[in-house]
Hints:
The structure holds two protein chains of two kinds.
Chain A: E1 13-24, E2 27-38, E3 42-46, H1 53-59, E4 70-78, E5 81-82, H2 90-96, E6 97-100, H3 111-121, H4 128-138, H5 142-145, H6 158-171, E7 176-180, H7 188-201, E8 206-210, H8 214-220, E9 223-231, E10 237-246, H9 247-252, H10 257-263
Parallel strand pairs in A: 2-10, 3-8, 3-9, 6-7, 7-8
Antiparallel strand pairs in A: 1-2, 1-4, 4-5, 9-10
Helix pairs in contact in A: 3-4, 3-6, 4-6, 6-7
Chain B: H1 18-60, H2 63-68, H3 83-115, H4 118-133, H5 136-152, H6 163-187, H7 191-199, H8 204-233, H9 236-241, H10 259-268, H11 276-306
Helix pairs in contact in B: 1-11, 3-6, 3-8, 4-6, 5-6, 6-8, 7-8, 8-11, 10-11
Amino acid sequence: MISNSSHPVTTQAALTAEDVNVYYGSNLAVRNVFLEIPKNRVVAFIGPSGCGKSTILRCFNRMNDLIPGARVEGKITFKGQNLYAKGIDPVETRRYIGMVFQKPNPFPKTIYENIAFGARINGYQGNMDELVERSLRGAALWDEVKDKLKGSGLALSGGQQQRLCIARAIAVEPEVILMDEPCSALDPISTLRVEELIHELKQQYTIVIVTHNMQQASRVSDLTAFYNAEATETGNKIGYLVEYDQTQTIFHNPTEKATQEYVSGRFG
Amino acid sequence: MTTEFPSTPTSDLWKPNRQRSQRVELIVKLIFGAFAFVSIVTTLGIIETLIFETFKFFQEVSLWQFLTDDKWTPLFKSAKFGIFVLISATVMTSTIAILVALPLGLLSAICLSEYATPKVRGILKPALEILAGVPTVVYGYFALLFVTPLLQKFVPGLQGFNALSAGMVLGIMITPLVASLSEDAIYSVPRSLRDGAYALGATKRETITSVVLPAALSGIVSSLILAISRAIGETMIVTLAAGQNPRLGLNPLVPVMTMTAFIVQVSLGDTPAGSLAYKTIYAVGMTLFTITLALNVFSFWFVRRFREKYE
């Protein structure tokens, strides 16, 4: 059994995971994850397929609740509250912990309505036009779309769509943004723009990003968590957190051999 | 025709009969093509007959009369041919049908695809399918002998034959169609869109009404239009339960005669072929066909115009 190296905390934690286990049906998918996400930092989750990094990411905003049969054990703390305590409304947590998905998924609505939707359902009372502009500027998309706010969000290019989804996420003023391989469907130039955007967003938000691209992890993140998977006798894969430290350390001087092998491209 | 490549040491072991397989391919293509062609020929044949007989009808009755007369009495001595008498009845029964089928069908589609647990779904879906399999003549008697007497307790002045109960039962008949096609449309809205809405803090209801239903709109509308077409063309229920009295107006409480009911009436009678009365059924048939064709064209246009393309 490999121990988790704990990371020295310098700033306040935005999210903490304590002994999180996730089950799909009766299968354990990820086990014993301890993790602390510091405020205003970018944390990257890396690891081979099936290691549970996306599963853990989806625990933070209770998106796993939507998967039939998924069950989360353990404790995830956000603002002093255990998100999995009784009486916590997952809908409420998702307003504070936003999410950007693997494939851009703008709603089949106008660009304006894509942004305004989240604000409306959360009872935003302020000026909607201002919020839409602020959010689009925040996602570095305003200049490209300001003349076609009434046009369909689906008419944009893939990279623009993904920035629209980021704009949509920040429009509800979350504290944390979870990104599940946000660039995997984008071309290199669009990827670069999203990465630049992540750097800017860090000033205001805490970001957790799952990525298969190790260069991306080393470019955008302050901290990196490396997950790995082990196969059980029945052939199921159980993911676990191998090592979590400063990105520099993970990539250049990791403690665990598996991490060393993964970041140097020897497997995964 | 064979292609020659340079021979290799094992060439002698490989002797595919290319010529034969090419011939078989061609024959298979012709057979499949012929079967596909049958449906086109049939459609063309129907349209040709309709147009031909309708044309002969309009040589005797002017289009103006057909569209403006306020009576439909083609079998009387003083024959009148006001098609709107029949259209008004058809419109009325179909409208009542869609008023029943839209909420019933759409809500059960939403329930089936979004809310139902596998267990509930396992009961609901077959129940709907059974509804779709009930012969229309059974629906007709159900309307005439059960729904009408029941309605008469609440609706004063409801006659034994009426558009109201025929329309309502017609609505029940087309509900499975609306439900099943709408469910397909709702179900095919990608999961990623729902996730996007949930991730913004939308509740299930908000996700369904603001994201899923608008995204499925084109499919839902086309299912509705298909259902309207079915209701307009449906014969047995309206013939049995709505009556045989051509009457202009939109009063659902009295007996009326729909276009399809008229065609039944004339087809079952001893109207000699070639007579004017005989030709009227083609004129009415042509009108029916034109209306459903227009609906289908509209539905086709609507789906193309409003369909959202997802990968």
